Records
---
Amino acid sequence: MSLVTIRNIYPICTAPEGIPLVIVKVETSEPGLYGIGCATFTQRWQSVAHTVTDYMKPLLVGKDVSRIEDIWQMSMVSAYWRNGPVLNNAISGVDEALWDIKGKMLNTPVYNLLGGKVREAARVYRHADGKTLEDVGDRVQQFLEEGVQVVRVQHGGYGGNAYADYLDSLKPEGAVEGAYYDPLGYELSVTELFEYMRNRFGMKVGLCHDVHEHLDPIHAVRLAKALEPYRPYFLEDALPPEQVDWFQMVRSQTTVPIAMGELFNNPSEYNKLISNRLIDFIRCHISQIGGITPAKKLSDFCEVFGVKTAWHGPGDTSPVGHAANLHLDVSSSNFGIQEFAGFGQHSLEVFPGCPELRKGYLYPNDKPGLGIDIDEDLAKKFPCSTALPKWTNCRRPDGTINRP
Ligand code: GCO
Ligand code: MG
């Protein structure tokens, strides 16, 4: 095949489940040959879309589609300042689309370009939450009956604030609006949650929990110590990225497996955590670090230090992003587990070729490239909202903003 070049690049913004998603489509000089990639930063989806149109397109149209590494490196430094969430997501959309194109040109799935399968499917963990401990437990039971082996348990969302009806009594006069929560009440609720789950399900079920950076560092250490007898599968985001040096104390005080990464954009945020073995699972949001190209490098770097992958897989990762996660999952020896928020019916229709979940495992198909497509006409029927998120206006009882 003669030289194939990038002919057009554009964003497709769609919200099949009400969550804004950004997909990038890269069309080539070869009629009918195109790729798609995930560029989803849901809180700033418009900024990513503009970046794709205003900068990635003029930068890359005419470039050789085979030069994935060079295009990634060139895109990363093109704005001089780099490693931010908006630019990284725009780069990810192109990067994943180029891997998709390369697979299509070679008539093979992307996982074969990453070293081939080391497993047939990726074991997933699902999200259980609820109004009461019994509700959370019932949700765990449902997942176990579906064959899921690891469940993330939360009681009242992040910060356990959903049912803290006493919160108003803790606020000062004239408290401004926000997503208030009580750190102490939350911290105590987590040990109650794990006590309940272990009494109901025993010690063999994998249970993880997402602190979502809602505790002061020393209280995060205290919580990790308190959970040790309950043998969590992992404790996630116990600290905000700005306080990761406290992980040394977590490590010295407990053997609770530590997961961190969805908020990282920049290698300098995770390099030392990995090389000093201060975490057990790296959880980056792959589009947040720039796509498959950096994620594969990060996964291999982690393998050297015995750190496993648990890529971010929430509702604000697109099905294309979940497919990209999965091609890495099935081809990485140090894969740990895959977060999977599930696909709604609209998503299944907008994104033909979604990976299939069967008995707790997510299966890729054997189609060339990422194995997933997007129905652009149908995508248009689910416009993205421009409303700003309220949950990130996270506040402690006295009104202090907390990392969300
Ligand atoms: C997770 C994450 C998400 C994030 C969300 C932010 O572990 O899946 O914490 O729930 O809060 O992706 O937009
Ligand atoms: Mg999380």
---
Amino acid sequence: MSCKKAYITTPIYYVNDIAHIGHAYTTIIADTLARYSRMSGLDTFFLTGTDEHGQKIEHSALDRGKTPQEYADEIAATFKTLWDDFDISYDKFIRTTDADHKLGVQKAFLKMKENGDIYKDVYKGHYCISCETFFPKTQLVDDEFCPECGRSTTVVEEESYFFRLSEYQDRLLEWYESNPDCILPKSKRNEVIRFVEGGLDDLSITRTSFDWGVKLPAELNDPKHVMYVWLDALMNYLTALGYGTDESDIDYWPARVHLIGKDILRFHAIYWPAFLMSLDMPLPKHIAAHGWWTRDGAKMSKSKGNVVNPKEVADAYGLDNFRYFMLREVPFGGDGDFSQKALIDRINSDLGNDLGNLLNRLIGMSGKYFEGRVDSSKVSEYYQTELDEVNDSIAKLEPFVFEMQLHRYLEELWRPLSVANKAIDKYQPWAMMKEGREEEAMALNGLIATILAKVSIMLYPIMPQISPKISSALGFEISHDSWSRYITGDDVVDEFTIEKIPPLFPRIEETLLAHVEPEEKKPKDTKKSKKDEKAKESDEGIALIGIDQFFQTSLKIGTVVEAEEVAKSKKLLLLQVDIGEETPRQVVAGIKEWYSAESLVGTQVCVVANLKPAKLMGMKSEGMLLAAKDSSGLSLIRPETLKANGTDIG
Ligand code: MSP
């Protein structure tokens, strides 16, 4: 086995909230890379963990009446449990409250200071607690709001240590220039270059106005300062390998890849390499920034109540199916939209039809004609063309992995499946058997089994639970050895008797995400007398109406074709909604707190279409949108699948 090393990291997650689909996405990509590395023989170290210091966490803890440490312990445990439930193959789960991490950060601070990169001054400016970022006034929106998240910033004026980031501009630019793959996707590298070319300010790297953070090294005798949370957090990538304490794993450095989301690229692509240069440490090979997940077209947020819970999805649809969906659906770097329909389509079509059915066909053919036996010894005699085609595809896969092109990897991996399915249709084993061409039919079985063997191995990093089921039905285990035989080598599978296994991807009908809803309260008196227009009351005191009263309300499906904010209003959005009439309806809706105008365009809504027009802030509103609001926020009610505009609801 080669002793080349691969160090793969996820961001460390803030402990101010529980994990959502965005966190799961980063972690699953990193897990895929780690599994691929190990399988292909690299000595791999996979790191994940939690980012526990800073003002944001301190506030979240205090809001809940807990100490920051208690709160961090609680949330860090939920992340760890989730990753364990998801069988994430991390080698270390780091917490920034770990004692050796704190020591390592202090050592780094001293080293940067010794190198002349740290000086003390006064920081005056604005700070966004949510993004844990300083902003100069020139970058604020309306002189107050954070340009990243839109929240109000606080004015800070305090003594601070500074890192001479400005001194690193040239060296950073040189690094980007001479390492075209250092930031992936490459378009992001150009963005970073443009930003750095614009000039860099020195960076404030300590705070004095709160104390939930790593203290400065005792040698500096300056106890009122704590480290800036991003210096503390970024250092985790080194301290996890023992930097500054027990350095036995430090040889894994430099990282093969830091996986991150696009929102934290600046910290990783500018601050982090500059810190590393100051520490005289080599720079990472790749910093790979993925895009953002939305849900049904809308930005996810707790206040909107539309956050996708990864555990709920994995429990409802299968963990490996969820992994496959996320990696196949979105080109790396692009934004992705989570919808149940897209997920179900992928499972039924790619996994069920293309992969699952192929295995079923093999089980069926072997059972029917050869008592389950598969013998591949004559494959190349009859099907060399197909084998060549398959081996060509397999050989193209590896480069996609560390270029982060996992969607292309999967696309290419599906070609062998198509070769196999087409071969069965073309050569028709049933006809061969009728004509007594048994050897050819058996060789076809061998071809299909060999293709499935190769695909199961290459699919393993993405689907680590399902792939071994396929390989075990084919009589082998996925390992570095089978990789060497079937992937880098061109072996066909050994003779074996196929194991009948239940379908791996039973067809899923579109259903709601599995979540428990309170039992519907059925009104007891639903009998309607035409004369009786007066609403009755149910036992629970709810006004009861008859069905035709209900149908007096015209409810229709519509698509938002235009949306804009109503100037000077904190609540209102002005929407044009196509409900299948000649011109779109104008609807003024009080939903700005939960939805941005852009996120609504192109999405479907339910409209009360026969309300008397009303005027809101001087604008005519010709309808109302159905929505549900509880303590977690407001969600629009939408059709589960696309419906024609103007479709009646009822
Ligand atoms: N603690 C910092 C990272 C420090 S790394 C030295 C942090 N934490 S985070 O919990 O807010 O975010 C962690 C990761 O989740 C980021 O990579 C971020 O991009 C990702 N995501 C958070 N929401 C997301 C989506 N809606 N979609 C995709 N990923 C998103 O930032």
